[in-house]
Amino acid sequence: MDTMETIMTRRSIRKFKDTPLSEEKIWKYLEAANMAPTASNRQPWNFIVIQREKLENLQELLEASFKERLEDMGEEDYQNYKERLEKMPIPGEADQIKNMQSFFRTLGNAPVAILVYVDEPDSEQRGFLDVQDAAAAIENLILAAWADGVGSCWMCGPLVKKGDALKKIFNITDKRLIALIPLGYPETFPVKTPPKDDVKDKTRGLP
Ligand SMILES: Cc1cc2nc3c(=O)[nH]c(=O)nc-3n(C[C@H](O)[C@H](O)[C@H](O)COP(=O)(O)O)c2cc1C
Fold it and tell me: Of 34, 175, 30, 181, nearest to 117 (Cα)?
């Protein structure tokens, strides 16, 4: 795949095959992440590779992270969220809320997930830059994986309610979590593209 094809065909994957992902492949994607552009070359990102066995132990926590977020939503937010989910290709039955809850619990049966974190920033500017650096690293990682036929889903949802619990589990209570990314060979491939806005409506300066 050339770069543009990789970018244009990548989709978030929420159901994976049992097939394990080799250490070699995981290192390859982490190397890609590590080559991301980064402010002042600080490279603030860190990664924890979580294998399926450990993910099984996190199921209750991950599902609770979803349920607690729902419980906290007011009626309007809940309806908006539900509408957004309706347009997303989440594997499962008709009820997209249930499908998403199940995805949070199982991470689509991904053989592995990567937890990304940075140091707690010592200034607002540092925080502003670190999040962008980490996001660039994540995008490199998921595109490198996709070019190999390996799917992923960039997830922040689980960190909203259960970030502190995850930090405790992985002994990184003094760090800032950025994302959790299940990775594996897609079970459903390719999936439908979710609706994308027209970039022309969001751009000024070109005819
Ligand atoms: C910062 C960020 C956080 C996200 N968090 C979640 C998440 O918690 N759960 C989830 O299923 N998808 C999550 N996603 C994936 C988006 O839902 C997905 O990218 C979007 O629906 C567009 O679909 P596509 O990736 O297939 O183009 C996240 C993506 C980003 C960039």
Answer: 175
